[in-house]
Every structure is written in structure tokens, then in C-alpha cells.
Design a protein that fits this description.
Shape: elongated
Low-confidence stretches: none
Mean pLDDT: 86
Largest sheet: 5 strands, mixed
Structural class: alpha+beta
Strand content: 15-25%
Number of helices: 1
Distance between the termini: 65 Å
Number of domains: 1
Radius of gyration: 27 Å
Number of strands: 7
Length: 178
């Protein structure tokens, strides 16, 4: 008695289903990897901005201890990268009249014309730019004033601190918002 061929392999439909599932899983994984790379870039950018804020406060404190509070306005036009002991490796330098295409993505640069520090994101799929619609973040130093207690009018304000902040609001879309 001869038995029929009892070996059974995958059918073409089973193979297509398995390949489709694998492709969907790989696509989902790659999308998440790119998202998390972009979030890591955002964290690194904000870490540099935080370091620059701290360096600016130290510069302001140095002026106060020397009795040069009036010189605080000079902080507004300076390149904040000069305040750091070591510039970040992705600092491209100073340029006059920067556009986002003039700087390689993932780099910082100082605009000598606008007196702003600019960061151009490398990964910007989840980046929502400010009102100008350009994919970059611009930072500027600003002096903070508080009213003098018991006095009236703008002339009765005193310098209370310095801020290093974005020129325009921006955001990165977080997971689940897109």
C-alpha cells in the first residue's frame, strides 16, 4: 500500500499573510524609532538652551557682584555660546542674516544681524514651527523687570533677572497627538 504524500508546506496565501504581518511590524518599529530619535534631538536642544540660560545668569550675577548692573543690556546682543566653557560640537559659528537652509540640520548658529541663536532640527517630522512657518528655533536674551513696591509707572521698574527664551513658540508633537 502506497501512502499519499503526507508532507505539507506553506500555501501561497499563508506566506503572503506572514510577510504582510512582518512588513507591518517593521514599518511600525521604524516609525517609532524615528519618533524617539526626534524626541532625543529635542531633549539635546533643550539641554543646550538650559545650559545657555544658566551661563547667562552667571554672567548677570558676575555683573551684579562688580556693581555693573547697568551693563546687563550688553547681554542682549552677545552671542550666548561665548558664555560656555565649551561650545557644543554642533555649533556652526556666527553668520550674518541666517536662513534655515544656510545651516546644516542639527546645528546651532548665531545670527549677527538679528542677534539670535538659531537651531535647525535634523529630524523635524513631529516639529511644529512658530508663526514664521520655518523649521527652526530661534532664541534671544531678554531682561526681566519688576515694579518697585510703592512706586507707579514704567520708570518705577527695576531689573530683576535675565531670560534666554525662544523668540516664537514652537513645539514637538508628543506620542499620540499626530
Amino acid at each position: 500500500m502506497v501512502k499519499g504524500n503526507s508532507q505539507r508546506g506553506f500555501t501561497l496565501i499563508e506566506l503572503i499573510v506572514v510577510i504582510t504581518i512582518i512588513v507591518l511590524l517593521v514599518g511600525t518599529l521604524l516609525t517609532r524609532i524615528w519618533f524617539y530619535q526626534e524626541q532625543a534631538e529635542k531633549a539635546a536642544m533643550e539641554q543646550v538652551a538650559g545650559a545657555l540660560q544658566s551661563a547667562m545668569v552667571l554672567q548677570y550675577g558676575h555683573m551684579l557682584t562688580r556693581g555693573n548692573e547697568a551693563d546687563a543690556k550688553t547681554l542682549l546682543g552677545e552671542n550666548p555660546m561665548r558664555w560656555l566653557m565649551q561650545k557644543p560640537p554642533n555649533y556652526a559659528g556666527e553668520f550674518y542674516g541666517i536662513t534655515p537652509t544656510a545651516i546644516a540640520p542639527g546645528n546651532w548658529a548665531f545670527d549677527l544681524k538679528a542677534r539670535e541663536l538659531v537651531y535647525v532640527p535634523y529630524r523635524s517630522e513631529y516639529f511644529v514651527p512658530g508663526k514664521d512657518g520655518l523649521k527652526w528655533v530661534r532664541y534671544r536674551a531678554r531682561l526681566e523687570y519688576e515694579p518697585v513696591p510703592g512706586a507707579a509707572g514704567k520708570s518705577a521698574e527695576e531689573l530683576s533677572g535675565v531670560l534666554f527664551e525662544p523668540v516664537e513658540p514652537y513645539q514637538w508633537i508628543v506620542r499620540g497627538e499626530k
